């Protein structure tokens, strides 16, 4: 038997997938309820407005990022597995039918987002940049990476490359991602 929490989590997971496939205005509550075998009223019970649903999607994604990066952020460690983990995560999302990242999916409709949703998205993205900046700083300090310039600027540049590569991969295939990841490794002085 499904619990209320299970239903809520399934709604958020389905909304995330639809958001990353179609954008914020490209799906309805019916698109969520039908594949889950629930009534629209159940979606409305958990999320009275689409704004609350989108904010919950961002919050869940942010919590997942924090869980996956908490140990590294607290204690450091090798940076290379963090970088390769980012590549693997990106590939898995694309293979699972989520061709654009959360920020990319919401950027089209950014001005339509509530101020609270914008704030949640901005915190999520700033935490992503902070984590990746630390990955690059740590990697450079430990000799895993070699690059010129500031780690924060490099982090933003790489995250932007990955976001663009996801869009190209959607149109031209996964080789676009592989090519981008190889170039990032080269840019970080990791070529074989």
Write the layout of secondary structure elements.
Blueprint: H1 4-22, H2 29-36, H3 40-46, H4 50-75, H5 80-95, H6 102-107, H7 115-141, H8 151-172, H9 175-187
Helix pairs in contact: 1-2, 1-4, 2-3, 4-7, 7-8, 8-9
Short structural description:
The chain is an all-alpha fold and 192 residues long. Helices cover 75% and strands 0% of the residues.
Structure in words:
The mean pLDDT is 91. The chain has helices at residues 4-22, 29-36, 40-46, 50-75, 80-95, 102-107, 115-141, 151-172, 175-187. The chain contains 9 helices and no strands. The N and C termini lie far apart (52 Å). It is mostly helical. It has one domain (51-187): Tetracycline Repressor, domain 2 (Orthogonal Bundle), CATH 1.10.357.10.
Instruction: Please give the largest β-sheet.
Output: none
Instruction: Give the ordered list of helices and strands.
Output: HHHHHHHHH
User: Which word captures the global form?
Assistant: elongated
CATH class: Mainly Alpha
- What separation lies between the terminal Cα atoms? 52 Å
Number of helices: 9
Beta-strand residue fraction: under 5%
Q: How many individual β-strands?
A: 0
CATH architecture classification: Orthogonal Bundle
Secondary-structure class? mainly alpha
CATH topology: Tetracycline Repressor, domain 2
CATH level-four homologous superfamily name: Tetracycline Repressor, domain 2
Into which percent range does the helicity of residues fall?
over 70%
List low-pLDDT spans: none
């Amino acid at each position: 038997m499904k619990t209320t929490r299970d239903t809520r989590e399934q709604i958020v997971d389905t909304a995330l997938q639809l958001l990353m496939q179609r954008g914020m205005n490209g799906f309805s509550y019916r698109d969520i309820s039908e594949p889950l075998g629930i009534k629209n009223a159940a979606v409305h019970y958990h999320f009275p407005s689409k704004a609350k649903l989108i904010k919950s999607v961002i919050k869940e994604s942010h919590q997942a990022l924090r869980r996956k990066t908490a140990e590294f952020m607290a204690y450091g460690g090798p940076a290379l597995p963090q970088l390769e983990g980012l590549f693997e995560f990106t590939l898995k999302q694309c293979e699972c039918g989520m061709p654009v990242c959360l920020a990319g999916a919401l950027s089209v409709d950014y001005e339509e987002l509530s101020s609270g949703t914008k704030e949640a998205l901005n915190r999520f993205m700033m935490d992503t940049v902070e984590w990746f900046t630390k990955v690059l700083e740590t990697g450079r300090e430990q000799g895993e990476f070699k690059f010129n310039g500031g780690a924060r600027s490099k982090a933003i540049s790489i995250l932007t490359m990955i976001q663009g590569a996801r869009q190209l991969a959607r149109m031209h295939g996964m080789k676009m991602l592989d090519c981008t990841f190889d170039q990032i490794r080269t840019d970080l002085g990791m070529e074989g």
